[in-house]
Amino acid sequence: MRKQIAAANWKMNLSLQESEALVSDLLKTDYSFTNNQLVLLAVPFPYLLNIQQKISGDNHFSVCSQNCAATENGAYTGEVSTQMLNGMGIGYSIIGHSERRLYYQEDNSTLANKINVSFKYGVQPVFCCGEPLEVREKNAQNDFVQLQLEESLFHLTEVQMTNFIIAYEPIWAIGTGRTATSDQAQHMHAHIRAVIEKKYGNDIATSVSILYGGSVKASNAKELFSLPDVDGGLVGGASLIASEFSEIIKSLKK
Ligand code: PEP
Q: CA–CA distance from 142 to each of 47, 118, 149, 188 (Å)?
């Protein structure tokens, strides 16, 4: 059974004290987790170990980095490698968030390299894809997202693709308060699964968790997460508020 995942993306927000208080508050709720449910906290690099320590002992919570380097090691000032993450016990990294694509010019081939070094050092990618507004307005979103998958992921082996995690995040819905409708989300998630099925077969496509991201809140999470091909969410703004994010966690499919 594929994982249902609530992933918090804190971006470049919160002081260390605020982030520890947020996690303490999140841990106060009884979520009655099932075995296939997971919460990821994508926290800023300097907080990874502190937050990992805070959640230790709760095997439904894991920390996640928000990015990683595309190369293994060397003279890349300011970068953080997957080898370093692995050495710190960090098992997940977001790769290809639209803010990285936009502000740091990360293209599909750079992201393929990040995916490769992630697998090499045992860090599970949470791969983001999604179209900008002008592509959606031309109704060209399916081809756009398919190309992102093909160019960054489709060199992976069947083993690597099994239980893979993708976040579909329409760029026009990120941080805008404008959420994709249930129809828009379900159509795209089904399309992503169909594209994976065509390349890797049904068993692998069924094992992939496809999260929705874009203005997920406590008030819309239940409806979005109940869609057949939506396996949870990647959440920005609402993940900074304990009461909101704990409701979002509770909205995961059982
Ligand atoms: C995100 O950061 O990936 C995101 C979806 O942000 P928000 O939930 O604020 O739209």
A: 36, 26, 11, 7
Is residue 129 within 8 A of residue 101, CB to CB? The reply is: no
Catalytic residue status for 187: no
**CA of residue 74 to ligand 1 center, whole Å:** 32
The answer to whether the beta carbons of residues 97 and 9 sit under 8 Å apart is yes
Find the 39 Cα to ligand 1 centroid distance in Å: 15
Number of domains in the chain: 1
Q: Which domain holds residue 138?
A: 4-250
Which of 234, 244, 248 to probe ligand 1 with, by most ligand atoms within 8 A of CB? 234
148, containing H or E segment: helix 141-153
- d(Cα 238, Cα 4) in Å, to the nearest integer? 18
Helices 108-120 & 141-153, crossing angle to 10 degrees? Answer: 40
Helix, coil or strand: residue 232: strand
Continuous segment of H or E residues that includes residue 86: helix 82-87
**73-118 pLDDT, tens per residue?**
999 999 999 999 999 999 999 999 999 999 999 999 999 999 999 9
Ligand 1 closest atom vs CA 173: 10
